[in-house]
Design a protein that fits this description.
The protein is of the alpha+beta class. Helices cover 41% and strands 26% of the residues. A hairpin with a 4-residue loop joins strand 9 and strand 10. Helix 2 runs antiparallel to helix 5.
């Protein structure tokens, strides 16, 4: 179980050596750090391997990959301690990130910056510190790779060199992690987008795609309802074999070829409708086609949109029947009115004749 060090420190015990970052630069540094989306993430073996190696190379009992946010230093990886974070104001690393070279504190009790620091006077009793800044490609120091000891000591030039090399490896890991994380987000968004589009097309009565004329055949290039792209050679597809597009009718295929050739010449869309029998049911298809370009193989390619308009046709036919029935009813009523009027006129005429004969 990790630990969080919550030790306050009297500001009077910290000597201001003029190394504070300007607020504007610090905000830019924080923005760079947050862009990695790494704070508060679980331990990762690649980072732990580096802290372990750093501790062994430098001969220290403690090592950290330390990242400094607005108020704390948080340890992405730790070796030899259970500490997870400490307040930023008492951290050694806040000074280390202000330079670009490795900061070395051979004996903290002899350094005015740290001789009253709680991390020195209390657990973990830091006496030695060496931290190399983790500088990203934009020039911002995100934190440090640091090694610590409870006893004063020095590092050899070879140890310092290896610490710098390992620090650069930490930055590379952070960059790689950032790229992978963004890629995962992008892939997730793409999958969600594809699912949404798939649901849209599945619920839509429309199909759209690209076809080309090869001789007297139509070859499907892409079908955006099933979102597939077909290879011209290995997956050529004769539209005449697909009921939803042209059915089994040679006449309909010829109609498609005629409309496609018209739009190839005019460069204007052509729209046409025709009936089909799809799965035993009468179906009306509305097709709109438009010329795109000549493909590398010399065949003309066209965009198409196909829509099942059966309901619209049925509704229009039903409306037409209702109108015809209304007209028939009106004609019948008019005829009935004429008959009544004729009958009335005959009755009046007979009544008048009878009155005269009397």
């Amino acid at each position: 179980m990790g630990q969080t060090l919550n030790i306050g420190m009297d500001k009077n015990n910290i000597m201001d050596l003029g190394l504070e970052l300007s607020l504007s630069n610090e905000q830019a540094r924080l923005d760079a750090l947050y862009s990695y989306d790494v704070l508060n993430t679980p331990a990762e073996k690649d980072f732990d391997d580096i802290t372990t190696l750093a501790a062994h190379i430098c001969g220290t009992p403690i090592a950290f990959v330390s990242l400094l946010d607005e108020s704390r230093q948080w340890f992405k990886s730790r070796y030899g301690t259970e500490l997870e974070e400490t307040p930023k104001e008492i951290s050694f690393c806040q000074f280390a990130i202000q330079g670009r070279d490795t900061m070395i504190v051979p004996d903290s009790l002899k350094d005015l910056r740290f001789d009253h620091n709680p991390l020195v006077l209390d657990e973990p009793h830091i006496r030695f510190y060496a931290g190399t800044p983790l500088v990203n490609p934009s020039g911002f120091a995100l934190g440090t790779l640091c090694v610590l000891d409870q006893s004063p000591r020095i590092l050899t030039p070879e140890q310092l060199g290896m610490l710098k090399v390992l620090g650069k490896q930490v930055v590379l890991l952070l960059e790689l992690r950032k790229v992978i994380h963004h890629q995962q987000i992008t892939e997730m968004a793409l999958r969600e987008s594809e699912a949404t589009m798939s649901a849209f097309f599945d619920a839509s009565p429309m199909r759209m795609g690209v076809i080309e004329i090869a001789g007297d055949e139509l070859v499907l290039v892409a079908d955006y309802r099933s979102r597939i792209a077909l290879n011209d050679k290995s997956n050529s597809y004769d539209l005449a074999s697909s009921l939803i597009e042209v059915g089994d009718s040679k006449e309909i295929l010829e109609m498609w070829l005629e409309k496609l050739r018209l739009t190839e010449v005019s460069h204007k869309p052509e729209k046409f409708e025709y009936p089909l029998i799809v799965e035993g049911n009468p179906t009306w298809i509305s097709a709109t086609v438009g010329f795109l370009s000549k493909h590398d193989n010399g065949n003309p390619r066209f965009a198409y949109i196909i829509e099942d308009v059966t309901e619209r046709i049925r509704t229009a036919e039903e409306l037409q029947r209702n109108v015809e029935q209304l007209h028939a009813s009106q004609a019948a009523l008019k005829e009935q009115e004429n008959q009544l009027r004729i009958s009335y006129e005959k009755v009046v005429e007979l009544s008048f004749t009878d009155s005269l004969t009397k």
